[in-house]
Structures are given as structure tokens and as C-alpha cells.
Write a sequence for this structure.
């Protein structure tokens, strides 16, 4: 079957016996073309099925009106909310999004960066994979002065705006809350401590233990990928400990929900036998029984800030600094999973 070719301004010009330049101006509603001629041009364009080639036009102006995004997963409610925040801002500004998914691997992240660079995106927003160590794959963007904004998972490189929360403070508040509830053996279920988010939360956890006179026990630190399988395995490890932890801070709500369910099935009472705090304030934290105490991580606000910062940089605003770190506020939300003593906050 023959593929029907695209209609061009030259085809319209030939039918109307006008110059291509006149057709082009008419399609752009240029005031130099009288209203009657403009209507003839737009009517014929519609009749012939003409589609404007904005991509080619933008390339001539060295601009594609596209923004690249690299995320480490797509199943996360947090990532979905970040993307919603980005889209809210960029759609109003007339930009399209091209999303790359690294599946938590450096190799795929680097391939996504390479692909987005060659698609000539005008800017890039990225959150790093679990095992990303060097950021060489972003070098072409830096060399071409294409703005980059990193969010959530970032590295201390001398370029790119970083949008984060205070992970040390969040980890401290989660753990201090458990200590104030009377927990004395507080475990920590987290992910790769090479990533800033988990390293910060772990540091806050350690600070809270120290300030409440509790000793850090290396056995109580479980580093996993925060998957369903990891949560189930962690329950077995926790139940095998003697004495068992009486509180646990888990850096992901989904993982915490799976952990809670398995713990209940093993006969443990929550929070009486073990108080639990999660992280992210995902919808599941309000559905699980008992409802999960968690850290509210405002993903949509983070996405909006990332998009606004990138747009400022792409517009060349003098106030847009490319090495800023913007900290989004997080907060502890107390629910039934951790409250052993309702009087104590």
C-alpha cells in the first residue's frame, strides 16, 4: 500500500495560484496578508489535510519545544505525582515531554540520556538510578549548554539545579517519633546508601538514635531494593532477631505496607509489638490497616519546581542560577501504625 505523502505549503500554493511565501504567512495569520486571502489559504489547507511541521520549524530556530525526563521507575505514586507537576507547568508553556525510564540501572539511564540528547531536547529533568555512580552521560548536555535539573536522587556535581527535600531531617523526625513512642530497638529498612536520599535518611536515623540515648545496632540496618520480595524477606529477618526490634523506619510506603501485612500474618500486633513509620505518603498509607505513619513527600510540588527552574534557565533569565539547590518541605504525618502512646507526639 502506498503511503500518502504529507501536504506542503507548495501544494497549497499551486492550487490557489499563490506564492509559497504568501501561503506560509497566511497560515501564520500574518497581518500583511488580507483577511479574505488568509481565509482561502486556511480553508484549502484544512480541505487538503495540511499539517504544520512545527518540529522542522523549531529545528531551524535551534529549538524543538521538547523537554526530556529521565525517571528511575514509573510504578511509583511519587514519580507519577512529580510527572503531573512537571506536565502542569510545561504544558502551559507549550512544551512536549519525552520520558525515559531507567528501570533503576545506570546502563539504561545512560542510554536514555544519549537518546534524549540526539532528539535535541531543549532541557532535561532527571532522577538518578540506584547504581548510577558517574554522570558522564550528561556531559554532552553541559557542553551544549542544555539546562539540566535533577530531582529527588541527585549527586553533588558542580552543574544542574537540584530539587530535594531535607532527607536528614525527615529521617530524624521519623526515628525520633518512634523513640518518643517508647521504642528502644528501632530497625531501619532502606535502599542503596550510595544514593543521597537513602544516605540522608540513614544519617537522620542515626542522629535520632544518638539524641534519644539509643545504640545503633548494625543488625537493625537492612539495605534492600524496597521491593515486595525484599519486604517479605525483611520480615523473616526481623522475626528471627532476639530480641526483636520494637519499631522500624521503612523508607518507602509500598514496602512498609507489604511488611506490615506479612508481620500481622505472623501474629505481630501493630503498633503494640512493633511500631512502623513509612515514607512518601502514598495512597496505600491511608488504606492499609492500621493506617501508616509516614513522611509526606510533596511530589507534585517537586515536579512544579523542577519545571519552573528549567523553564527559567531555558529562557535565559538572569535570576536563574544553574547550581542552586531548592529544598521542598516535607513533614511527618502521624497515624495509627506508630502510636503506642496517644499522649506523646
Amino acid at each position: 500500500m502506498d503511503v500518502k505523502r504529507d501536504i506542503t505549503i507548495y501544494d497549497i500554493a499551486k492550487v490557489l495560484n499563490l506564492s509559497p511565501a504568501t501561503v506560509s504567512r497566511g497560515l501564520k495569520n500574518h497581518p500583511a496578508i488580507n483577511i479574505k486571502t488568509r481565509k482561502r489559504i486556511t480553508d484549502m489547507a484544512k480541505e487538503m489535510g495540511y499539517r504544520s511541521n512545527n518540529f522542522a520549524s523549531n529545528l531551524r530556530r535551534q529549538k524543538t519545544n521538547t523537554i526530556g525526563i529521565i525517571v528511575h521507575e514509573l510504578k511509583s505514586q511519587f514519580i507519577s505525582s512529580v510527572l503531573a507537576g512537571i506536565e502542569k507547568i510545561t504544558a502551559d508553556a507549550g512544551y512536549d515531554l519525552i520520558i525515559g525510564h531507567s528501570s533503576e540501572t545506570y546502563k539504561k539511564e545512560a542510554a536514555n540520556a544519549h537518546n534524549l540528547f540526539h532528539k535535541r531536547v531543549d532541557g532535561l529533568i532527571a532522577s538518578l538510578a540506584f547504581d548510577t555512580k558517574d554522570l558522564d552521560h550528561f556531559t554532552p548536555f553541559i557542553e551544549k549548554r542544555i539546562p539540566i535539573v535533577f530531582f529527588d536522587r541527585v549527586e553533588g556535581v558542580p552543574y544542574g539545579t537540584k530539587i530535594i527535600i531535607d532527607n536528614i531531617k525527615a529521617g530524624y523526625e521519623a526515628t525520633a517519633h518512634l523513640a518518643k513512642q517508647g521504642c528502644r530497638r528501632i530497625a531501619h529498612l532502606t535502599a542503596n546508601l550510595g544514593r543521597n536520599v537513602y544516605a540522608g535518611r540513614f544519617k537522620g536515623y542515626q542522629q535520632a538514635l544518638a539524641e534519644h540515648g539509643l545504640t545503633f545496632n548494625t543488625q537493625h540496618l537492612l539495605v534492600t531494593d524496597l521491593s515486595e520480595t525484599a519486604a517479605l524477606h525483611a520480615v523473616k529477618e526481623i522475626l528471627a532477631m532476639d530480641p526483636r526490634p520494637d519499631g522500624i523506619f521503612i523508607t518507602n510506603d509500598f514496602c512498609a505496607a507489604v511488611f506490615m501485612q506479612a508481620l500481622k500474618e505472623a501474629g505481630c500486633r501493630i503498633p503494640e509489638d512493633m511500631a512502623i513509620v513509612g515514607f512518601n505518603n502514598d495512597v496505600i498509607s491511608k488504606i492499609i490497616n492500621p493506617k501508616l505513619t509516614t513522611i509526606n513527600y510533596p511530589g507534585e510540588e517537586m515536579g512544579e519546581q523542577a519545571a519552573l527552574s528549567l523553564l527559567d534557565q531555558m529562557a535565559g533569565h538572569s535570576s536563574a542560577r544553574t547550581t542552586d539547590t531548592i529544598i521542598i518541605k516535607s513533614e511527618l504525618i502521624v497515624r495509627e501504625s506508630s502510636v503506642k502512646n496517644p499522649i506523646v507526639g
